Amino acid sequence: MAEIAAAAGVSEMTFFRHFATKHGLLFDDPYDDAIAGAVAVQPQGLDPLRRAAAGLRAAWAQVPEPEGDVVRRRVRVVASTPSLRGEMVRANAETERLVAERLIADGVKPLRAKVAAAALLAAVTAALFEWSLSDDVGLGDAIEDALGTLEGTHG
Amino acid sequence: MAEIAAAAGVSEMTFFRHFATKHGLLFDDPYDDAIAGAVAVQPQGLDPLRRAAAGLRAAWAQVPEPEGDVVRRRVRVVASTPSLRGEMVRANAETERLVAERLIADGVKPLRAKVAAAALLAAVTAALFEWSLSDDVGLGDAIEDALGTLEGTHG
DNA sequence: TTCCCAATGTTAGTGACTAACATTGGGAAC
DNA sequence: GTTCCCAATGTTAGTCACTAACATTGGGAA
User: Fold this and answer.
1) Are residues A49 and B150, on separate chains, in Cβ contact within 8 Å?
2) Across B14-23, B31-40, B65-74, B145-154, least confident range
3) pLDDT (tens digit, 9 = 90+) per residue, A44-55?
4) How far is the CA of A11 from the C1' of D4 (A)?
5) C chain positions with any atom within 7 Å of a protein CB
6) How many whole angstroms separate alpha carbon B7 and alpha carbon B14?
7) In whole angstroms, what is the distance from residue A54 CA to residue A60 CA?
8) What pLDDT, in 10s, does the model give residues A102-118?
9) What is the 3-state secondary structure (H, E, C) of chain B?
10) Which residues of chain B (6-65) touch nucleic strand D at CB < 7 A?
11) Closest partner residue to B152 among A82, A142, A152, by Cβ?
12) Which positions on strand D lie below 7 Å from a protein C-beta?
């Protein structure tokens, strides 16, 4: 922490006023609302899990594929460090909550909404980690594969 | 820690030689192999997620429903403490790995196997947490609801 | 010019966890 | 029965992320 704060040119205290934890530095997710919003506009005729998956697919289409391998290398560090994986789950909790909230607002039973949201985020996170460990797979393909697995359409 | 170790009648050092972390005390899961084994014997004709779900359903049928509300109260503490939720994910990682491994052994693509395993564990964990927050739902019903949501058969 | 307040700094902690070394007790080898 | 061993436990003195309670400063509004 002393080194990080020094490198940032601030005191340790100041650092902690911006990031709750040292690990929090790595997780900056501004996509929560976009994902939840995209889920909300999917047809209510779908069951919760498929609706959530469709929402994520729609949200993902709006995000540019990352260039270079900075992202991949960063995710790789997270994927291979148990405590960081835990932090990642924590970082996803807010997205999960928002997605579940939207589903519940449309009349989905809370347990099913939360299960669908949790499964969605877990699936995407697993795809992200798996993607980071390889060199040639595209992130978009990995995510599409994960969504297909959730939906049961790919095999 | 001083209090916990004293209550256990050992020194802090001795405590840490038995449990890697203080939080680790709460997670003792001996079900890993049972779940992975149950997944393995499900029909290979099913897609990975459904197969995993069917396996967990079969494994669950072998476990007696917990009596009293000791378990519920304990899970409630975990569910409402972010850092403990993270530890729970960490505790599930081994089960997840074993389930994915069995699927891969049967020819499922690694990414899909890991996604299915992650989604399964996340769904069950979400159901467990939701169950802990209510007083009248049965754990078996909550889990069945979660599995149905994964499979897309309940709605 | 004065006042304010928000951001930043300083100091002195707390608490989980670790490394290095000392102690002990009971079972195996003789 | 004695000796030896070694595995489990204890002791001490740390490290490191993080926090609480203050002090300081600087720039913008009144």
Assistant:
1) yes
2) B65-74
3) 989 999 999 999
4) 56
5) 8-11, 15-20
6) 13
7) 10
8) 999 999 999 999 999 99
9) CHHHHHHHCCCHHHHHHHCCCCHHHHCCCCCHHHHHHHHHCCCCCCCHHHHHHHHHHHHHHCCCCCCCCHHHHHHHHHHCCHHHHHHHHHHHHHHHHHHHHHHHHCCCCHHHHHHHHHHHHHHHHHHHHHHHHCCCCCHHHHHHHHHHHHHCCCC
10) 9-14, 17-18
11) A152
12) 9-12, 16-21
Q: Give pLDDT, residue A6.
A: 93
Interface of A with B in 97-126 (CB under 8 A): 108-112, 114-123, 125-126
CA distances in angstroms from B99 to A118, A124, A125, B95, listed in the order given: 18, 17, 17, 6
User: Alpha carbon of B101 to those of A15, A63, A152, B33, B112: distances in Å?
Assistant: 41, 32, 19, 11, 11
AA letter at A134: S
Nucleotide nearest to A14 (CA to C1'): C8
What SS3 class is residue A29? coil
Residues of A in contact with B93 (CB under 8 A): 82, 85
Instruction: Count other C-beta atoms under 10 Å from residue A25's C-beta.
Output: 14
Q: Please report residues of A whose CB lies closer than 8 A to that of B119.
A: 119-120, 122-123, 126, 149-150
Kindly state the tokens that stand for B116: 């299915």
| Nucleic chain D contacts, protein chain A, residues 15-74, CB cut-off 7 A | 16, 20-23
Q: Give the model confidence (pLDDT) of B42-64 as tens digits.
A: 999 899 999 999 999 999 999 88
